[in-house]
Amino acid sequence: MDLSPFETDNSVSCRLSSQIPDVCRTEDCCLGIDEAGRGPVLGPMVYGICFCPISKKEELKNSKVADSKTLTETERENLFEKLDEAKSYVGWALQILSPNTISTSMLQRTKYNLNALSHDTAIGLVKYALDSGVQLKEVFVDTVGPADKYEDKLSKLFPGIEVTVRPKADSLFPIVSAASICAKVARDRVVKAWNFTEDLGEVDTDYGSGYPNDPKTKAWLLKYLDPVFGYPQFVRFSWSTAQTLMESKGVAVHWDDDEEDGEKAAQRRNNKSMLSYFSASAGVNDRMQTHQTHRFFTDRRLKSLDTL
Question: What's the confidence (pLDDT) of residue 74?
Fold first, then answer.
């Protein structure tokens, strides 16, 4: 599994895939869909599909694939290697959704929640398999939201394919278990080798589980909260855990509004106006200071001006 396309830019979504086995283009196939990392406040969410000929279902079952959550990391890695060794009849594809992609999607003006993002990602992966020539006849999906509605939605989108959506499908159908393993292995590897583009020095990688209720995760979030710029892109800043910490520990800033006479309103509230960071006086102060400009400004090529 080559993760370098995502590691080159981990701020965006990225698709990775195996070679398509020739037999999957000539025989009727089944496909399973599952995800890893839906709940954590840290790291990406990874959607995975795995597919093989229907005639190979029993062979896949005999490889002892199981719900990735019931396996140790070593067991998952070993099973992924088995799947990789079976590349003559097993194929897979992944969509890695970066924390930045998740948060910006959820916080955009038009409501786009995590369920909608999950559905669209799964649909995109099924379309990828079909466009690649995989002869899909059966699709098995671990549900997101009400199973019957999701099943109906997918059946209408993919007529001629028998769609089965079930809760805990990763423990019921080996092909979904295989997809679960691929997704979980990819997420674990990405999190372990995360490349922080922010200047954080030597980063403490003891994140805990990444889930919001984990004390280690909470401590990590508090440690790496910048009071002005918030979190590194490793964090899903749309999660309530992250938002609550930013609101309680971050610097209060007033966003200027003409109707409120922005600068004066900010002064009344004893807050800094956002415009003050770009004023002529701010530019003079910046030149007098010795510390480097924050990457927020350099990435966007923003500079303070004395004159317009």
Answer: 92
Q: Which residues of 10-43 are buried (b: 16+ CB within 10 A; e: fewer)?
A: beebbebebebbebbeebebbbbbbbbbeebbbb
What's the rounded Cα separation, in Å, for the pair 214 and 222? 13
The structure tokens listed for 275 are 């415009």
Return the higher-pLDDT residue of 253 and 11. 11
How far is it, in rounded angstroms, from Cα 208 to Cα 111? 31
Q: Is 306 annotated as a binding residue?
A: no
231 three-state secondary structure: coil
Compute the mean pLDDT over every residue in the chain, rounded to the nearest whole number: 86
At 100-152, the pLDDT tens digits run 999 999 888 887 899 999 999 999 999 999 999 999 999 999 999 899 999 99
The answer to the question of whether 34 is labelled as a binding residue is yes
Rg for the chain, CA atoms, rounded: 23
The 3-state secondary structure of 70-112 reads HCCHHHHHHHHHHHHHCCCCCEEEEEEECHHHHHHHHCCCCCC
pTM over 0.85: no
The residue ranges of every structural domain in the chain are 4-192, 253-299
Is the confidence at residue 272, as pLDDT, over 70? no
User: Parallel, antiparallel, or unpaired for β 272-273 and 253-254?
Assistant: parallel
Query: Residue 126's closest CA among 152, 158, 162?
Result: 158
Q: Is 2 annotated as a binding residue?
A: no
pLDDT of residue 255: 64
Average pLDDT, integer, range 297-303: 70
What architecture is domain 4-192?
2-Layer Sandwich (3.30)
- For residue 272, the surrounding DSSP H or E stretch is strand 272-273
Report the distance separating Cα 114 and Cα 105, nearest Å: 8
Q: At what angle do helices 147-157 and 114-131 cross, to 10 degrees?
A: 30
